Amino acid sequence: MPYLPTSQAFLEQSAQLLEAYPDTTRITTKYHFPTETPGARAKRSKSQLKKAASTTSETTTTTQNTPAPVASLTLKTYNPTTGIVLQYQTNKIAEVSRLITGLGKLASGADVASLGVSGAAGGGDVEMVDAPAVAEVVPVAAPAANANANAGQGGKGKKKGGKGKR
Amino acid sequence: MAPHLSNEEFFSYLTDLLSKTSQKARGSVYLSQKPLIDGVTNAPPSILIRATDGNTNAPNPKSQSKDGKITKKASSKDKIKFSTVVKVDDLEAFYTRYADVCKAGMTGLKKRDRSKRKAKGKGGAAKAAKA
């Protein structure tokens, strides 16, 4: 179950998977809050408050006594017959609208080329081979890329991921 | 299974579900989409969109006693699920709306932090370039 480093990569791979298996592939979007034990919650709220206090800018600490945990959004493209899963996770609201629009394009049967990809579209046979291959290759690269994205340097990771794939 | 909602109804239900989840700051919302292919026509298929809160009405198998009787009821009896079918012609309009509804409802996600970018300059700028 690879997590793809960028939303663009996710959409591209999903498009290929959908193209190969249009009738059995489904896309699930999960919006979820982390489950926390009371202890973990207390710890997190403490550290968040501390952080808010240390940033002495004019930004008023919008976080109240019990700041809410940060939710996250996981997109999953799953094909049950082949067992291929593609995943992408984010916690930034800024990405939501782009992602959903992308899902809309996938739903209307957009191919890889129309997703605004630079010359990645190949023949059908190549793509069918490509998707499973990525499923095996990506886990190695994914943790590093994910860490990047979480640290707020997604831009860097994005470029890397894009280049590595082509 | 409950019948499919109209697209309008779906959005109002979804707005409700998302805002409730965000307010509680716990739980999940699952949204799934898949093409409805009947295998007869070759026309581009309609898209089935489902939404659920991920609860289940099925009894917990762990609470099943040895004689096969279920001693406990399901822990959460109020599973929320609803679905709609989007026709090919409506896809674009639907997804524009869908994106708006999701963006408005998913308030638990990290907001774009503009003030930080201004204050910090360099470090913030790198972040902003991504977002």
UniProtKB/TrEMBL annotation, chain A:
PANTHER family: SIGNAL RECOGNITION PARTICLE 9 KDA PROTEIN (PTHR12834). Residues 33-69, 145-166 are annotated as: Disordered. It comes from the Eukaryota. Residues 5-108 form the SRP9 domain. This is SRP9 domain-containing protein. Pfam families: SRP9-21 (PF05486). One of its GO terms (biological process) is SRP-dependent cotranslational protein targeting to membrane.
TrEMBL record, chain B:
Keywords: Cytoplasm, Ribonucleoprotein, RNA-binding, Signal recognition particle. One of its GO terms (molecular function) is 7S RNA binding. The keyword RNA-binding applies. Its main location: cytoplasm. The keyword Cell wall biogenesis/degradation does not apply. It is found in: Cytoplasm. Residues 50-75, 107-131 are annotated as: Disordered. Residues 64-75 have a biased composition (Basic and acidic residues). One of its GO terms (biological process) is SRP-dependent cotranslational protein targeting to membrane. It holds the Pfam family SRP14. Belongs to the SRP14 family. Component of a fungal signal recognition particle (SRP) complex that consists of a 7SL RNA molecule (scR1) and at least six protein subunits: SRP72, SRP68, SRP54, SEC65, SRP21 and SRP14. PANTHER family: SIGNAL RECOGNITION PARTICLE 14 KD PROTEIN. This is Signal recognition particle subunit SRP14.
